[in-house]
Write a structure and sequence with these properties.
This protein is an alpha+beta fold. It contains 3 helices and 8 strands, in the order ββααββββαββ. 17% of the residues lie in helices and 37% in strands.
Length: 169
């Protein structure tokens, strides 16, 4: 019996151009395939630091993956989008994401299956899409149906694309 994850079929992405975004979050370095620390990071973030962030937008928190120094490394932030930076609590990180074009994918299933969605995006969709990913942050947006107690509900994965490509209407 193989321990390989089951391949998934992605629904076609939605494409959006988004302006500058500001976030305040709890950052931790991680490695691809070894992201078992992320649930505890979310628990820590939501149990205190999140409530102290000023100027939060009225939307659920966001997971942000920033490229690391190697292809296997990344920095993960549990973050709140903010309208401006002010009196950021100690231990939290401010990041500004430049305007970008995104391919937005719907994740189906439990939050623990997100790595399978990322694999499908990077290994199946991107190589055949004609699109070029930007070396930039990817985002995990949770919608109002997401239940952090069960790990089920709506999540979309946003992958930044090079801007020299025309987005479909």
């Amino acid at each position: 019996m193989s321990s390989r994850p089951q391949p998934i079929v992605l629904a076609p992405p939605v494409f959006r151009r988004i302006g500058e975004q500001l976030f305040v979050g709890l950052a931790a370095e991680d490695r691809m395939g070894e992201s078992t620390k992320i649930p505890a990071q979310w628990q820590t973030f939501m149990s205190g630091p999140y409530q102290r962030i000023r100027h939060k937008l009225q939307q659920p928190p966001v997971g942000i993956s920033l490229p690391g120094t190697t292809a296997e490394d990344f920095v993960y932030l549990c973050a709140a989008q903010v309208s401006r930076f002010e009196a950021t609590p100690a231990g939290l990180t401010e990041i500004t994401l430049a305007p970008s074009d995104y391919a937005i994918f719907t994740h189906q299933g439990h939050v623990s299956a997100l790595p399978s969605t990322y694999r499908a995006i990077w290994h199946d969709w991107l190589p055949t899409s004609g699109r070029v990913p930007k070396r930039a942050a990817s985002l995990e947006h949770h919608d109002a149906s997401f239940d952090p107690r069960t790990g089920l509900g709506g999540i979309t994965v946003w992958i930044a694309l090079e801007t020299n490509q025309t987005l479909p209407d």
